[in-house]
Amino acid sequence: MATEERRGKQRTKGKGRVEFQFVTIGEDGRRAGPAHGLLLDYSLAGIRFVTDEQLRKNSELLIELEFAGLGKDMDEWRWRWEEQEAERLKVIASVMWCQENKGRAGEFEVGTRFLEKARAD
Questions:
Q1: Three-state DSSP state, 65
Q2: Is residue 4 situated within a structural domain?
Q3: CA 72 → CA 14, 50, 76, 78, 117, distances in Å?
Q4: Ramachandran quadrant class, 103 (left: phi over 0; alpha: psi -120 to 50; beta: rest)
Q5: Where in the sequence is the domain holding 67, given as residue range(s)?
Q6: Structural domain contains residue 7
Q7: Pairing relation of β-strands 108-117 and 88-100?
Q8: pLDDT value at position 121?
Q9: What CATH code is carried by the domain that includes residue 92?
Q10: pLDDT at 9
Q11: Is 29 a member of any domain?
Q12: Is the predicted pLDDT of residue 117 greater than 70, yes or no?
């Protein structure tokens, strides 16, 4: 029996071991980090990754992800985020859920939803 996909966007596994950095944006706009994540899979709507940081639901993250880690989907992402020349995608995302990995104490799996392209600093 086929399982029904709950998400509106197809998810794709990262190309190899794709590590990236992110910072947590507080309600007051202050940034904490950087922290590191390991990409598990992605869609045009968000990413799922592993980190050693426990993140609160609905907290906002500034994620910096190299386009090269997206493999065959790199061109589609460049078009979607209007980043034809950049090597990295910088987006603001919201934490949808965060759960500790079973059998791996101190490691958390996080699901995010993209909110907007990050403004240039």
A1: strand
A2: no
A3: 10, 22, 8, 11, 21
A4: left
A5: 12-117
A6: no
A7: antiparallel
A8: 60
A9: 2.40.10.220
A10: 53
A11: yes
A12: yes
How far is C-alpha 1 from the geometric centre of its chain's CA atoms?
30
What are phi and psi for residue 81, nearest 5 degrees?
Answer: -100, 5
Residue 6, in any domain of the structure? no
21 with 56: CB under 8 angstroms? no
Between CA 64 and CA 95 the distance in angstroms is 15
Q: Find where tokens 């190299």 sit.
A: 66
Look up the pTM and report it.
Answer: 0.80
b/e sequence 4-20, b meaning 16+ C-beta within 10 Å: eeeeeeeeeebeeebeb
Q: Could you report the per-residue pLDDT of 9-48, keeping only the tens digit for each? A: 555 555 567 889 999 998 888 888 899 999 998 888 899 9
Please report the sign of the dihedral spanned by the C-alpha atoms of residue 35, residue 117, residue 92, residue 16: negative
Residue 17: both structure tokens together: 């071991």
Say how many domains are in the chain. 1
